[in-house]
UniProtKB/TrEMBL annotation:
Its EC number is 3.2.2.n1. It catalyses: AMP + H2O = D-ribose 5-phosphate + adenine. It is an enzyme of class 3 (hydrolase). Keywords: Cytokinin biosynthesis, Hydrolase. Belongs to the LOG family. It comes from the Bacteria. This is Cytokinin riboside 5'-monophosphate phosphoribohydrolase.
Length: 196
């Protein structure tokens, strides 16, 4: 049984087109706080990111933001977080978020959200960490991506055990329950960290 004390959430610095995305962020915030799970996220105070952080703080939870110096003004760093880490680069930001987190969830977001999710899922596939990764598929937002990933599996560009590592749910409570019971697949590491 995995011990989940902190979750990194990848999500948009835009609010998106529909209010359902902010509603989903608020629901996830409630689930995290009810389980005493610290939110780790990209540090911005705008868009879905800001909604998520604001809601966790409003409910009495802890929020750790990690933002690169170059984006701290552009993305408007959140002024009231429990902790804010300012990094020198995007690479350092992603590494720090990974180090601070026991699992990873993607809410709706843009190409930055997808890039972060795919990188952390790749790290899991390569055996660099054994933490759960998942999507909150809000109102079908990720349906097309899920279909494409099924196609990637069918075309044998990803193995079944690695495909299954990315958990998909529509309800944050169900996803977090799965995280608590997560068992990473037993697989031979392809390469060591010192080989990349």
């Amino acid at each position: 049984m995995a011990i989940i004390k902190s979750i990194c959430v990848y999500c948009g610095s835009s609010p998106g087109r529909r209010e359902v995305y902010a509603d989903a962020a608020a629901a996830l915030a409630k689930s995290l706080v009810s389980r005493n799970i610290v939110l780790v996220y990209g540090g911005a105070g705008i868009g879905i990111m800001g909604t998520l952080a604001d809601q966790v703080l409003r409910l009495g939870g802890e929020v750790v933001g990690v933002i690169p110096k170059a984006l701290s003004h552009k993305e408007v760093a959140h002024p009231r977080l429990t902790e804010l880490h300012v990094t020198a680069s995007m690479h350092e930001r992603k590494m720090r978020m990974a180090e601070l987190s026991d699992g990873f969830i993607a809410l709706p977001g843009g190409i930055g959200t997808l890039e972060e999710l795919f990188e952390i899922w790749t790290w899991a596939q390569l055996g660099f960490h054994q933490k759960p990764c998942g999507l909150l598929n809000v109102d079908g937002y990720y349906d097309a991506l899920i279909g494409f990933l099924d196609h990637v599996l069918a075309e044998q560009f990803v193995r079944t055990q690695h495909h299954r590592m990315l958990m998909v749910e529509t309800d944050p409570e169900v996803l977090l329950d799965r995280y608590a019971n997560y068992q990473p697949p037993v697989a031979k590491h392809w390469i060591g960290r010192d080989e990349i």
